[in-house]
Structure formats: structure tokens, C-alpha cells
Specification:
The complex is a heterodimer. Chain A is an all-alpha fold. Chain A has 15 helices and two strands. The radius of gyration of chain A is 22 Å and the shape is globular. In chain B, strand 4 and strand 5 form a beta hairpin. By secondary structure, chain B is of the alpha/beta class. Classes of the chains: A mainly alpha, B alpha/beta.
């Protein structure tokens, strides 16, 4: 039971990384992209191939995975990012499928549908992190999520973050503020792709094998759901969304009722929750994070209370005079 | 006086439809130039082509003696022979787009910050923001509010203030009076005059409200079906019988 819960947490971590990337693309820049699964696959295969065929260590493969995913993101981003909304969604959907099909058919490099097995366990300065014992691996994944969360948060508060938000709100206005719309869109896409690439690396060495069947279109959809469920434009919410969706996916197994319900049950539950969410709370569980929130005083209960006390105090003083 | 913006015989088409059929306009430095015309005359297309949003078929646009857009013939649409929008804006041209296009989910202050995107000096941004709050007091009162919650007139002021944050030499205004009450329109036009006189900003104004625009402007152009049909001093256009009957309802 505990071991199973740890498994859910590890998957939450891996999917959180993808969701964080998707949040940069969709939540901040407002581009509806559906190819996180493609970048996820690139990351996984880079790690698998470099570890098994070239004998690299796991940690050395992570930067390569991130970089290659980002490069593919840029290559694909340049022609497709001039598309908007549903057109971009269709184009990126096609792209995710292309990546999966290339992997499926490039036998000499990826071993085709058989996949690559016997990926060595990761070791950190001689300490082997065993995926089967889970605690160590969970710690590693958690550190990755934390680092990416902090980096992306920093990014969102920077000049670039403001540019991305302006592009989401109005591209023409953003352009006439002197923002290079194409440049920032491609950057956002590359950053999102790099996050998914790192997630792919972690996935590959957690399951110790990779097969093309893992990286289907559904992965992209689930990642998008995590972002929307948590709240677009809010990195903390993406992690929360990832946890909730993983919890729902494994709920029947977790409470031991999987033998009473067919496996498709979780998808019904999943769909219902999404429908209810979109009707009653379309902004997601946590909603968009606002930098200037705390300054308005309204959202911070203590400041609000303090201002109330002050006005009561003031009026009583005036009454006493 | 030298001309800051000169548009030389430009043509713009959307597919087979010619929106601009050879338009020439000169804006002298320090002046307010206005362009009036009915719906669909091509006014907004002209502004869009100045900031590089529409490729030219022929003709050229130059800004303070350097070419920012050039025509490339009928068959090469898409390979625009002009600077991209953000570079044109970095030369000192600021656009207040039609329908305001404010960043509705951002606060007034954040909108102004966005306007100064190309300014890297933080103290300079603060200084300009406080100038804007002095100039448009209502924005100072509402600076922590989301722009969505502002009235139309306030949003228009904010759009103008946002454009001024980059301290432009040339301010392009696309129908600043669109959908606003007459009193608010008057207020906005008086602000535009002040910006022109005190900050020495050249203003190119596109407007349907002909009377208002011609009163504020130095030079005026009248556009019909993609062609300039009249151009004169604004005061002369106000007295012109043709303009009177077609645009002023007299």
C-alpha cells in the first residue's frame, strides 16, 4: 500500500515536470500545444540509448535529453507557431505522432516496437538509486521538480515572463510594445519541450525500459488536463493538478476495489471530474497566480483584517473627540 | 520643417481586393495629422501597414529618412519587405490600436510596465509612470485595478498612456473616440493636443468623428475607397463644402 502510494508520488513528480513545461506554453503564452508526449519520448530515448549503447551515466544524459528536446521544439516551433488556437493544436498533435512513429520504425537506433531494455540504475557519486526501493528515487524526482519549479517561477517573474503574458493577452498589442512575438513564443516552446525531455529521462530510468507504446497522444492530453485542472498560469497548481490526476488514475488500485470495477471506470471518473470542474470552476483549482495580488490587500486575510481594525479604530477615535 | 513620416504611393491588397490604391501622406514633425473617412475606406489598413502588420504591394513608407517598409510587387505576398513590428516600434513609433487592445487581465500599472518593455532602466520607468499618473489622474487612482474593470474611456486613456510609456516621437492613434460618450471624447482629444504641444510628440490620428479630429489637427486628409480624395489644412477642410456635407452633416 505504502509502496503503491510512493509509486503514485513518483509518477506525480514525472508528470509534474511535463505539466510545468506545458504551463509555460499554454498557461503563460496561451499556445494550445499537444505534443508534450513527443518531447517526453525524445527525452526517454536519449537517456535509454546513451545509457545502454554508449555506456553514459544517467545524470550525464539529462542535459542532452533537455537540449535535444528543446532543439526539436525550436525546429518545429518556427514553422508552426504562427498558427493559432485549434490550428496549432492540430499541428502539434500531428508532430507528437510523427515523433512516436519515427521511434517506432527506426529499428537500428531505437529497436522499434521492442523498445530498449536493461537501462542501468542511476548512481550518484557511487550511491546507487534503486527504483524498486522507491524512497531514494522519490527524493531524486522531488529535487528535480523543486529545481524546475523555482527556475520557472523565476522566469515567470522576469521580463520574459511579462512578455509571455502580454503575448497571451493580445499579440498585436504585445508587438506594438516592442515585444518580439515570434522569438518569445519559440523560447516558451523550447523551455516547455526541455521540461518534458527531462521528465522523459526520469521515466526511462524509473521503468528501466522504454517502449514506443508509452508515449501516445493520451499522455499529451493528460498533461494538458493537469494544467487546466490545477489552474493555468500557476506553477504550483500544475503540480497539484498532476497529483490529483495521478491519484484519480490509480484510485481503484489504491483502495483495493480494482477487481470490482472494470479498468475503464477510472476514465469515467476522470471525465466526470473534468466536466464538473469546467462548469463550476473553469479557472482551475487554484486559478492564475498574480504577482500584484498581495499588494491589493484583498487577497491577504491579515492585511484585510488589519485595515478593518484600523478603520474601526479611527472612527471610534473620531467619535470620542 | 522636415517630414517625420512619409508614406509614398502605397498599395495594399487583401487577396484580390485592393484596400489601398496608392496613398501618399506626409506628417510633419511636431504636428497633428488626421485622416478621416467612412467605414471601410482603408484607414485602419493604412495604420496597420505603417507598423508592419500588412505587407505593401507597392510604394514605400519612411520614418525620419529611413525606409521601414517597401512594396515588392503582386506575387510575393507573405515575404514582407518591411521591418517587423517590434523593430518599427523600437524606432520611436507607438501605436494605440483600434478598440484599445489593453491587457485586460493585468492591472493598470502592469499595463504601463508593458508599455515600457524596451526601457531597461527601472528608475526611468518609475519616473514615466508617475508622469502618466499626473497626466491621467484617474489611472493613478485605479492603478492596482485590473484593466478589465475600467470604463471604456478609462481604458482608452490607459491605452494612450501605455503607448506614451515608450516616449515615442510619433504616436499613431486608431479611432481613439470609438464607442465613447461625446464628453469623454472631448476629454481625450484635449489630452492628445496637450501631448502634442507639451511633449513634442507628432501625432497621426485616424478617426471617424471628423469634426473632433479636424478641430484638433493641423493637417487633414480625407480617404474614400482606398484613395486620398482631399488633403488640406485641417481648418480649411472644416470649411470645405464637400467635407461639410459628407462628414459634418451640414
Amino acid at each position: 500500500m505504502l509502496s503503491f502510494f510512493l509509486l503514485i508520488l513518483i509518477y506525480t513528480g514525472i508528470y509534474s515536470l511535463m505539466a510545468l513545461g506545458q504551463n509555460v506554453i499554454t498557461g503563460y503564452t496561451g499556445m494550445l500545444s499537444l505534443c508534450q508526449a513527443g518531447f517526453f519520448a525524445i527525452g526517454s530515448y536519449v537517456t535509454a540509448i546513451l545509457c545502454v549503447k554508449c555506456g553514459w551515466g544517467f545524470f550525464a544524459t539529462i542535459p542532452v535529453a533537455a537540449l535535444l528536446s528543446a532543439m526539436v521544439g525550436v525546429l518545429i516551433g518556427l514553422p508552426t507557431l504562427r498558427l493559432k488556437g485549434d490550428y496549432l493544436a492540430i499541428a502539434t498533435l500531428g508532430l507528437g505522432e510523427i515523433i512516436r512513429n519515427v521511434i517506432n520504425n527506426w529499428d537500428s537506433l531505437t529497436n522499434g516496437p521492442m523498445g530498449i531494455q536493461k537501462i542501468p540504475k542511476p548512481s550518484f557519486f557511487g550511491i546507487e538509486i534503486n527504483p524498486y526501493s522507491k524512497w531514494g528515487y522519490l527524493l531524486m524526482v522531488a529535487i528535480f521538480v523543486l529545481v524546475f519549479y523555482l527556475l520557472l517561477k523565476r522566469l515567470a517573474d522576469s521580463r520574459m515572463g511579462r512578455a509571455l503574458e502580454a503575448i497571451r493577452e493580445d499579440e498585436i498589442a504585445a508587438g506594438s510594445m516592442g515585444i518580439n512575438v515570434t522569438k518569445y513564443k519559440v523560447w516558451a516552446f523550447a523551455i516547455g519541450a526541455a521540461c518534458a525531455g527531462v521528465a522523459g529521462s526520469l521515466q526511462a530510468c524509473f521503468s528501466l525500459s522504454v517502449t514506443p507504446g508509452t508515449y501516445t497522444f493520451m499522455v499529451s492530453v493528460i498533461v494538458l488536463c493537469m494544467v487546466v485542472l490545477g489552474g493555468m498560469g500557476n506553477f504550483k497548481a500544475s503540480i497539484v493538478g498532476a497529483f490529483i490526476i495521478q491519484l484519480i488514475s490509480y484510485f481503484p488500485q489504491l483502495v483495493g476495489i480494482s477487481n470490482k470495477f472494470p479498468a475503464q471506470f477510472k476514465q469515467i471518473l476522470f471525465g466526470l471530474i473534468l466536466i464538473v470542474m469546467m462548469i463550476y470552476r473553469p479557472q482551475g483549482i487554484m486559478g492564475r497566480s498574480r504577482r500584484s495580488f498581495s499588494k491589493t490587500g484583498r487577497s491577504c486575510p491579515f492585511k484585510f483584517l488589519a485595515s478593518k481594525v484600523r478603520t474601526v479604530f479611527k472612527s471610534s477615535k473620531e467619535a470620542g473627540r | 520643417m522636415s517630414s517625420l513620416l512619409s508614406i509614398d504611393d502605397i498599395q495594399v491588397s487583401y487577396g484580390n481586393i485592393k484596400a489601398l490604391k496608392g496613398v501618399s501622406i506626409d506628417a510633419q514633425e511636431g504636428q497633428i495629422v488626421c485622416l478621416i473617412g467612412a467605414n471601410g475606406a482603408g484607414k485602419s489598413t493604412l495604420l496597420r501597414s505603417i507598423v508592419g502588420l500588412e505587407p505593401l504591394v507597392s510604394g514605400q513608407i519612411s520614418y525620419s529618412d529611413s525606409v521601414i517598409a517597401q512594396g515588392h510587387g503582386e506575387h510575393h505576398r507573405g515575404h514582407a519587405n518591411c521591418l517587423p513590428t517590434e523593430q518599427i516600434c523600437s524606432l520611436g513609433i507607438a501605436l494605440v490600436p483600434e478598440g484599445r487592445r489593453v491587457f485586460a487581465d493585468m492591472t493598470v500599472e502592469e499595463n504601463l510596465d508593458m508599455g515600457a518593455f524596451l526601457v531597461k532602466d527601472k528608475s526611468e520607468i518609475l519616473k514615466r509612470k508617475s508622469e502618466m499618473y499626473d497626466f491621467f489622474p484617474i489611472l493613478g487612482q485605479r492603478r492596482k485595478q485590473k484593466t478589465r474593470s475600467l470604463s471604456g474611456g478609462e481604458q482608452q486613456m490607459m491605452a494612450i498612456a501605455r503607448a506614451l510609456m515608450s516616449s515615442p516621437h510619433l504616436l499613431l492613434l486608431d479611432e481613439p473616440g470609438l464607442g465613447l460618450a461625446p464628453l469623454v471624447v472631448q476629454d481625450i482629444f484635449s489630452k492628445i493636443s496637450i501631448i502634442n504641444k507639451e511633449n513634442k510628440v507628432t501625432v497621426f490620428l485616424v478617426e471617424q468623428n471628423a469634426r473632433m479630429a479636424l478641430r484638433a489637427a493641423d493637417d487633414g486628409y480625407v480617404m474614400e475607397n482606398g484613395l486620398i480624395v482631399l488633403s488640406d489644412k485641417a481648418s480649411a477642410l472644416l470649411a470645405n463644402p464637400k467635407v461639410k456635407s459628407a462628414y459634418l452633416g451640414q
